[in-house]
Amino acid sequence: MSDTVSFGYEDVAPSEKTRRVGAVFSNVARKYDIMNDAMSAGMHRLWKDRFVRRVKPRAGEDILDMAGGTGDIAFRLAASGANVTVADINPEMLAVGMDRAAKRGIDGLVWTEANAETLQWPDRFFDAYTIAFGIRNVTDIPAALREAHRVLRRGGRFYCLEFSTTLWPGFAEIYDFYSHRIVPKVGKAIAGDEDSYRYLIESIRRFPDMPAFQHMIGEAGFVRTNVEPLLGGLVAIHSGWKI
Question: Which of 110, 111, 119, 243 could disulfide-link 85, Cβ–Cβ 3.0 to 4.6 Å?
Fold first, then answer.
């Protein structure tokens, strides 16, 4: 990892990014899902449904949902009967997820504080690894991808849902205006936090494009890597297999 990493449009020391990202998600945890609805007009729900359909969770298999604190992906995975471990580096996000699970009467999930770059599980422990809208906030993304590969069993599958760069002419410019000018104001109105949502938008702009991130997944050891663009690449489902 280089001496500096991106925090939005800033380049900062790795330890500084980790600290700042932690502060961002501590600030937004309680309003995170409301803001997702506001920012995407509810489309994030459809993206997550499609993502889980691609994962094809099966009863009895072990799945690690990384950066899954609020439970959105885990609840969908668990409906299949899979054994789901929800991991997040941020305890406030986990607290929101556990509270949501209790209110919905969803039990059987394992909730664990974990750093994606240094997972505490042994080699070949899970059948699938999922991460939705979380990988771009990791300080050392290649390290997190290597850890995902390490904890998967042979034949295990990796799935990542993340914002990217839309290739649709005209739509890219409209979204750019909306995300930079409107989203931070919505964040201020709903969550009382303009700066955190400005960072979240900037972090999307600094994230590698679809081919570059697909290459990174392959560099971590995954094979049969694939990317499925949604809305022309505004959002993408990345996948790979461990053999």
Answer: 110
